[in-house]
Amino acid sequence: MIAAIAVVSFVTLFVAYGVKVSGAPDRVWTEFHHPIAGNLLGTALVSALLLPIVIAPWSLLSARILWYIGASGMIVFAWIIVSRWMSDRQQVAHATPAWIVPVVGLLDVPLALPSLDLPPMPELMMFSLAVGLFFAIPLFTLIFARILFEEPLPANLRPTLLILVAPISVGFSTYVVTIGHVDLFAEALYLLMLFVLSVLMGRLRQLPECCPFRISWWAVSFPLAASAIAAFKFEVFDPNWFTRGVAWLLLLIASLTIAGLLVRTLLGVFRGELKTLSS
Q: Would you say 139 and 110 are in contact if contact means Cβ atoms under 8 Å apart?
């Protein structure tokens, strides 16, 4: 049921954005070149990389085609974004958690491979892991420094802070899929994920206070879900009351948060607040 909802949502959003591309290509072009919003276009490719996991039991061919599109598109997108960063002078004020998206996208490339029954691709998996983790370190440092020493993030961007945990949680899952087991480095990523997540979790409690509800609040959903998945993967490696409790707690938090975001978004749509929600 949840998988079907995910597929329907992806198709609906894909069609809707296709209408935007055909009706207002200049706005799409401007959005792509925006120093912050342009990075968020990678979320569509991230979805194309993860959906094959749930599509594969229904149609392996469709899952493979979608994954090939997502993988090739994500590699090209990440190359374009990194080239843009290195070609033009950037402003510190633009260093926001949205910059993490292309990195997380690369880390997502190997995750669906075990479900697709494809020939082994160790080079591609290692490439995605290496590049993703390599760029995650300076980006995290840069964004953290911007938060410490510059003006606070605009209110509508504060919910995106939880994105900072995504490269750690996804990095753990990708590392385990690539290496095939949990070693000391994977355990270090898991523990780092718990620490950073515990620090940022307070942002969930502060959301109603920091800004009115916006679509940007959905930025907390993916990091929470990715952290829950990573916690369950680690629990398989080290099953005990603590790891099991952490995994189920994160799953509960992610599920309740996503359900709450869905209800509030639908309520806003029915109230005719869509333009306000997306501002």
A: no
